Amino acid sequence: MLETRMLVTGGAGFIGANFVRRALDTGRYRITVLDKLTYAGNRANLAGLNIDFVQGDICDAGIVEKLVPSHDVVVHFAAETHNDNSLKDPSPFLRANVEGTFQLLEACRRHDTRFHHISTDEVFGDLALDDPQRFREDTPYQPSSPYSATKASSDMLVRAWCRSFGVPVTISNCSNNYGPYQHIEKFIPRQITNVLAGLSPKLYGSGEHVRDWIHVDDHNDAVLAILERGRVGETYIIGADNDHVNNLQVIRIINELMGRDANDFEHVADRPGHDLRYAMDSSKLRRELGWQPRFTDQNGMREGLAQTIEWYREHQNWWLPQKQAVEAKYAESGQ
Ligand code: NAD
Ligand code: TDX
Fold first, then answer.
1. Does the keyword Lyase apply (predicted)?
2. Which of 14, 239, 253, 285 has the least C-beta neighbours within 10 A?
């Protein structure tokens, strides 16, 4: 059987590296990763995998033009991804997320290449705690942070390049991921590695904020389903129905799973403009493509978190060298 030639941007980051493993396991793909290796990218995340790796910037039209024509499909994960960083300096977000997506779309337009765009729930803004609605494919965009505004912009470019130029695209908007290889600046790995390093977990504000947590493998299985069976021109929401657990409860669960007093954590300064609640309605994806998350409901999330804790426990060499610098940066903003 002929393998599909796939170009994965941002494949050395958290979700991309897990995606590359998942896609290789199917035996259906020959993969090239294009990654700039920013502070968030790590070549070691792809160690031992049978792929081609190109270190380069998606904003570099020359590199993009060299790579796209020899691939059947582009799966676009590369981005600046951390809200807190976007509040300190939005400019790298504009460049990578908007200009970078533009360069990839232009190359896909020239070569009529299938393009899958990885996006986020944050483009829709946030919901009140008691709002019964969840985000759907037709929910209007209302991004709050510089990060989510740039992701929303990139989604708009993708839609426009499909409608105006006929680029064969799909988009997925997924909720908050957790799992192995996630950068320790993010909420769940930060708390796990705080405990492992003898520090307290750090909760922003009141902790009533709700994220619809999904295990990274469930996200990536959905991306594969969309690539293989999704309808071109369509957007798919991805979520695992975990929007009943707030940040305070997540910290309590992590503490419990790590054998600590559930309430042993610190309250720290809140994030300016902090989105209150995200919740996803992934019924279109489930109905049309038959996708189901494995790590769903409270038990599934506990299992996913327990596995993730084990991964960080067993991979101290992967995260420990960065821990001090990450915490020093947070300390500057009282977090
Ligand atoms: P990450 O920060 O862990 O990894 C991003 C990767 O992109 C890194 O390897 C980095 O080196 C690379 N990169 C950044 N700028 C680049 C550039 N200009 N050129 C080439 N490579 C570049 O991010 P992640 O959490 O794995 O997120 C991946 C994608 O998924 C992003 O598009 C993000 O918006 C989206 N997403 C993330 C989540 C989540 O919870 N983490 C949820 C929904 C959607
Ligand atoms: O130490 C912390 N304490 C804390 O309470 C950190 C780092 C975060 N938080 C809170 C803020 C959020 O309510 O936890 C929640 C999750 O925070 P992040 O991990 O920073 O994620 P979030 O801002 O929700 O965005 C994530 O999901 C959507 C990803 O980082 C984005 O890339 C993705 O698009």
1. yes
2. 253
